[in-house]
Write a structure and sequence with these properties.
It is built from 16 helices and 26 strands. Strand 19 and strand 20 (350-354) form a beta hairpin. The longest helix has 17 residues, at 487-503. It is globular. The termini are far apart.
Length: 504
């Protein structure tokens, strides 16, 4: 346990009002999580000001308040830690409060536009096969071995993240495998974390609503390689980089540590050759000086998954995992929720649900589907609201070019008008349809449930229905609320309705 005086000593120009020996038992910015002895952080948010919740925090047992305001109304007897800038103060005191948990475990950070989640799951599988205890922090969930915790951001903020890392350390984890988003790197949510291996998957257009330019986005990703290059208490730092991607040059420039490159097209330390992709999996040979040639037969398919496998193997090699564990784990690995996931409900056509929500993601999934398609591809897709608008027509054009039946619909509209979002998607769809001379079937259905039901209704034997955008998500964010919505559940219900009608 630490005192508020110890925390104040770490931050320039910090002041303690009250007892400097006040003991702090935890740090929280959510008043609902406050307990006895908590330091409650007052975050002046866009929609909600944390200062309004001081009474609730004190009632719940908070012993101190962290604020930037001189006029904060704090009950008598409650200590106040006042700082000039809130975020830099948190970046410093939170890792210290938890005794820098990342220093006690090996930490593998994975960044890139696409592939982070699949790479993290495969990496976790390899490490566990080798006998290590592994924590996972990612888009879908946080896992401490088999225990699953909910998650709200790909990379949680510094308060949540350090608390999670402390839980993992206390539970005896050897490794933490974490997805690291560009937002998290730009906002320094990873403050206080000593990374051991950093992995770069790829860089394609995404998040330009936030980063404004692709160059800014790339440089945000490169910060992970600045982090892994920093001197720390642990030895053996490695950057694992996909050199088939043009942005790899920047990542390698920022990585002042050992480099491990991987590729299909270029000569690299780790390379996949003799690639055969089919409906139920992929076969290829991995080549690396440590094990020579490793023939693999996988249960996951698509060229993008060959890259994901190499990302994970690169991380495993950086951590000196034996080849036999790598091969065993890869050949046993089946799927990640919402990543090219097959939905089977007794239908005589295929249904694939995927999280693809970028132009590159949509292109990868539809091209993979084309390689295994016996007949038509029916694509259901949309674009999220309050996000990069420039990718909407690009995704529409790709869907129109690569699918046979195109159904444009809503994703997570958020505060935007779904019809406006679809109008931008439709610009690209119409452009993509020009080459087909109107021969392709195309519909615009704003309601996502209706769109999925329509796609299933149109599907015939041996067609493939590809439902893109939400993958593992089980919710939809609308203007005034978040509702339960699961593409897989809706697809199964639509098949049941179709088969029921057929039976009648």
């Amino acid at each position: 346990m630490k005192t508020i005086g110890q925390l104040a000593a770490l931050v320039k120009d910090a002041a303690v009002i009250g007892d400097k020996d006040t003991v702090i038992t935890g740090i929280e910015h959510d008043s609902r999580k406050v307990g006895k002895g908590t330091l409650f952080v007052c975050i002046p948010g866009v929609h909600v000001d944390g200062h309004k919740f001081i009474p609730q925090a004190v009632k719940a047992g908070a012993s101190a308040i962290l604020t930037t305001r001189e006029d904060a109304e704090v009950p008598e007897g409650i200590a106040v830690l006042r700082v000039k800038e809130l975020q830099p103060a948190l970046d410093t005191i939170v890792p210290f409060f938890h005794d820098y948990p990342a220093r006690k475990m090996r930490v593998i950070g994975i960044t890139g536009t696409n592939g982070k989640t699949t790479t993290s799951y495969i990496t976790r599988a390899i490490l566990r096969r080798a006998g290590y205890k592994v924590g996972l922090i990612g888009t879908i969930q946080i896992m401490i071995e088999e225990e699953v915790l909910p998650i709200h951001n790909t990379t949680p903020d510094v308060v949540e993240l350090q608390h999670t890392l402390a839980m993992m350390r206390d539970a005896g984890m050897d490794y933490v495998v974490m997805e690291v988003s560009s937002h998290a790197l730009d906002q320094n949510r990873v403050a206080g974390i000593e990374f051991d291996t950093a992995v770069f998957t790829n860089l394609t257009q995404d998040h330009l609503d936030y980063h404004k330019t692709l160059e800014n986005y790339k440089l945000a990703k490169a910060k992970l390689f600045d982090h892994v290059s920093e001197a720390g208490v642990k030895q053996g730092k490695t950057a694992v980089v996909n050199i088939d991607d043009a942005a790899s040059t920047t990542m390698l420039e920022h990585a002042k540590c050992t480099h491990l490159t991987y590729a299909i097209e270029k000569e690299a330390d780790l390379r996949a050759t003799d690639i055969l992709v089919h409906a139920n999996g992929a076969e290829f040979v991995l080549n690396h000086e440590s094990f020579g040639k490793m023939p693999l037969k996988l249960h996951i398919t698509g060229i993008f998954n060959v890259y994901n496998v190499m990302s994970a193997v690169g991380a495993a090699l950086a951590e000196h995992i034996e080849a036999k564990y790598i091969k065993e784990a890869l050949e046993d690995f089946t799927a990640v929720p919402g990543r090219f996931e097959l939905v089977k409900a007794g239908q005589d056509f295929s249904i694939i649900v995927d999280y693809a929500h970028t132009p590159d993601g949509v292109e990868n999934v539809l091209k993979t589907a084309r390689k295994i398609a016996k007949k038509r591809i029916i694509a259901v897709f949309g674009c999220g609201g309050d996000r990069d608008r420039t990718k909407r027509p690009i995704m529409g054009k790709l869907a129109a070019e690569l699918a046979d039946v195109i159904i444009a619909t809503s994703d997570n509209p958020r505060t935007e008008d779904p019809e406006f979002i679809l109008s931008q998607v439709e610009e690209g769809v119409k452009e993509g349809l020009k080459e087909s001379n109107g021969k392709k079937h195309h519909e615009k259905i704003t309601d996502r449930r209706e769109a999925i039901y329509r796609a299933i209704e149109l599907a015939q034997k041996d067609d493939i229905v590809v439902i893109l955008g939400k993958g593992h998500e089980n919710y939809q964010i609308l203007k005034d609320k978040t509702i339960h919505f699961d593409d897989k559940e809706e697809a199964r219900a639509a098949v049941a309705a179709k088969l029921g009608k057929a039976a009648e």
